[in-house]
Write a structure and sequence with these properties.
The chain is of the alpha/beta class and 436 residues long. Helix content is 46%, strand content 16%. α2 runs antiparallel to α9. The C terminus is likely disordered.
């Protein structure tokens, strides 16, 4: 079994790669051409680098089937990276990851063809959320180029939401004199997500891309851009911390091994919990006096925060706990908000998987009732929250609630994943209901 990635076609700021899976693998692919649009001229990017976005997305699918990947030319550093990332994923998921061979017609040592000092800048994959803002704070002395990706949380066809995202990110960049660049890709839509979920969901805690593919995939999308802009390091903010012992698709064992030419990925902030990142942001705010909107929600159609989902609630609580007023960072919060959060716990209305439970327990571990808080009612709320058994909350969902939570889980998936899974979920639910 083999997945063939064709010769990349570069036209100004766009690269396309045809993907041809062998017959046994066709069910895992919904499209045949990976397309990536950049807002920079990539005409001079060598083919061995231009093909990296496609290779980065199809390789994990091949590995899950013990299949090979063939390509005309592969950058030597990225070829080594693929072997190391495949081995890392096999350690995480020994039940189904069994990497085959990467079979290039030619191995190109891009690093020998370009001077190392031409890649002395850095980039940061940026959403404007807690993780990426904390990574900016940690690396602000580098003045990193902020990189936004359309085709992950915001779908490649969701132009209105994407405008909302840009309207959020660009003022943050402009105020700090930072360059802001954008990537738009259908790479995730080329994969047949429902089929991948059907085969591998039992092995992973999240969706396919979150659990397996997104560290390699997102960094891979940045390869042509990094070559064009001279980015030697591309930071990707950690979603989790060393204290969370569950496999995930973005991890130091993956991201720190991704490299091409003179460029490399950096999995940033793995030693910090989410609440510790908020504390770092609070220290930055105290130092600079700046206030800026954070963007953590994926539900708001305008690209802001809905103030009514688990992640918005969790962020509001974390900000207040760190002494920050959420109203100064893009959220609505008052005494009533704490009551709503408490009701959401008691129903329960939260999706409390292992990831979510870990984050709330992290918040609990930082509660200090001797501190003063910027929102009325916070002390009483934290006194109550400190006594909540998160494990019990996670196990209290009834079958009807689980159905609602399943929909909420789906809405937390990357847009192309949700868009393809939702009609399948509805159809299966109708069959189950009609048959009961």
């Amino acid at each position: 079994m083999t997945v063939v990635v064709g010769e990349p076609t570069v036209d100004g700021s766009t690269v396309e790669c045809e993907v041809t899976p062998s017959r046994d693998l066709r069910r895992f692919f919904a499209g045949d051409t990976v397309r990536v649009d950049y807002d920079a001229d990539i005409s001079d990017v060598p083919p061995a680098v231009a093909s990296i976005p496609a290779l980065a997305h199809v390789a994990p699918v091949a590995w899950a089937n013990g299949a090979d990947v063939a390509a005309p030319a592969v950058d030597r550093a990225f070829l080594d990276a693929l072997e190391e990332v495949g081995a890392a994923l096999a350690r995480m998921y020994p039940e189904f990851i069994d990497p085959g061979e990467i079979r290039p017609e030619a191995v190109v040592d891009t690093a020998e063809e370009y001077p190392a000092d031409a890649f002395d800048e850095s980039g940061l994959l940026f959403t404007g959320g807690i993780d990426s803002v904390a990574s900016y704070v940690r690396h602000r002395d580098e003045d990193p180029t902020l990189i936004g990706v359309q085709g992950w949380v915001v779908g490649p066809e969701e132009d209105d939401r994407w405008r909302g995202f840009r309207n959020h990110v660009e003022p943050f960049a402009d105020r700090r004199g930072l360059d802001c660049r954008y990537v738009r890709s259908n790479a995730l839509s080329v994969l047949d997500t429902p089929m991948l979920q059907a085969h591998y969901k039992r092995y992973v805690d999240g969706a396919w891309y979150s659990s397996v593919g997104h560290g390699l995939g997102l960094l891979g999308l940045c390869a042509p851009l990094s070559h064009a802009l001279g980015l030697g390091t591309v930071h990707i903010a950690a979603s989790h911390t060393a204290g969370f012992d569950e496999p995930w698709g973005s991890h130091p064992e993956i991201d720190d091994r991704v490299r091409w030419g003179h460029s490399r990925g950096n999995h940033d902030g793995f030693e910090l919990t989410r609440q510790e990142k908020i504390e770092r942001i609070a220290a930055y705010v105290a130092e600079t006096g700046e206030r800026f909107p954070l963007r953590t929600c994926i539900h708001d159609a305008a690209g802001g925060n809905c103030n009514d989902c688990e992640k918005c609630y969790r962020t509001i609580v974390g900000l207040v706990l760190a002494g920050l007023d959420p109203r100064e960072f893009g959220y609505e919060a008052d005494r009533q908000t704490f009551g709503e959060i408490r009701v959401a716990f008691e129903e329960p209305a939260f999706v409390m998987d292992e990831h979510t439970r870990f984050h709330w327990e992290d918040i609990q571990s930082h509660i200090d009732l001797d501190r003063s808080f910027p929102v009325d009612g916070a002390t009483d709320f934290f006194r109550w929250l400190d006594g909540v058994d998160m494990r019990a909350v996670a196990s209290e969902a009834t079958p009807a609630r689980r159905e609602r939570l399943a929909r909420a889980v789906a809405r937390n998936l990357p847009y192309p994943v949700y868009a393809s899974l939702y009609p399948v979920y509805d159809a299966l639910s109708k069959i189950a209901t009609d048959g009961s």
